[in-house]
Please model this.
Amino acid sequence: MSNHTALALNGQDSFTGVLAQKSGQPVQLCYQCGKCSAGCPMSAAMDIKPNQIMELLRLGRPEPVWESLAIWLCVGCETCAARCPNGISIGRVMDCLREMGNGREANGRGRKIKLFHREFLDSLRANGRVHEPVMLARYKLKTGDIFSDLNIGVRMFRKGKFSLLPERIKDRAGIRELFNQTGPLTGGSN
Amino acid sequence: MKLSYFPGCSLQTSAREFDLSARAVCGELDLELVELPDWNCCGATSAHSLNHELGLTLPARNLGLAQETGLDLVASCSACYNRLKSADYALKTNPAQAGAMRQKTGLDFDQNLHVLSLLEAVTTRIGIERIKQRVSRPLKNLKVVCYYGCLLVRPPRVTAFDSPEFPVSMDRLMAALGAEPLQWSYKTDCCGASLSICDSRTVRNMVNNLLQMAAETGANAVVTACTLCHANLEMRRDPSRTMPVFYFTELMGLAFGLSACAGWLHRHLVDPFPVLAPVLAV
Model:
């Protein structure tokens, strides 16, 4: 670890310093080379590009970021992390921003992505493993978008790609305890 | 040789052909996969997207179970592999984080466990030469592009396997099976991952770009090591596209002449048999 990185991670009380400490990423070192936005597979669909987000954060002006779609579109592919000359994983910063903003989102697309993650984790918490058909059905019901993938669902069912009963682990109590130990999920009380 | 085996949730349902083919070809090569008892879901993208600690402790529970077996741990799904490896990396390099993980899971972790992807286990623990010797039906006339995706090779300091920009391990494996691996520039591009369900329009564009480039490269099939890449490339494509997508283990099984292959391949949403006709005719 370079001296610069160590200094950055040993952040002060500024917003940027706190973010660097919390995320473990030296966000102050960003010098706007733009490699993250150039390589990001979601960049084209984002309202604020990854390098623009980094500049807002470095300036301590995160307000537009909390309600952006961009922080929800990041899937953590880590292309930015592999290419950043300053060793910043912007994907990890995005995780951190979702938690710090506690799930505020700009529009319906961000809301749907958050809902998907929550349904996934609800299924995991109940069974210890994720039961795809029920998780997807619950997600579809909650979004009201019931028919968009029905065709694919039927094809998958015919190919035996959906099992009707969930796989459940024995130590489900242990899994519930892990959820309790790690605290609330972003954007919700449980 | 024995390894602890972490199949992952989707290998029991939508990607069962990956699980079946992985067990079959490893068995052929005397690599025994011992399923980790009572393993839990790794949390995938969803856990670390909403709670960093949860994203590390869920896979850490599995690391604790693996440690008890005394065997190294191999994960077939790239997403599971990446989450297990991320937790492993945090335990080995970040003492503060490791302390929190110990406290939250109630487990004590030693530093001796090694986490591998199935591709890594096959290419490094078994080795290309031994695989080549086992080939009884070379995959002649099959031109493939190898699609590694994101989580097998990134972030490089965590995965420490192959190259994050231009990996070659799967290409070498395909060449050993008698197929012709073609070089293309989308080896490690993203398939759209879980946004396939909740932002499918974005993912459709990404998937069609990938398949278009595969076609322009001259390939007649895509080979993958990831269940989500496989699902997205099959589900989110323009219906006019017919290029099949294989798990690398399925092509190993084909080259080994295993009769169980047909059962795996019948589970695909995109019919792979037209492309395989010249291979199976030999």
Summary: Chain B has 14 helices and eight strands. Chain B touches chain A through 55 residues (CB under 8 Å). Residues 136-281 of chain B form a domain with the Rossmann fold fold (CATH 3.40.50.11810). Chain B has two domains: 2-117, 136-281.
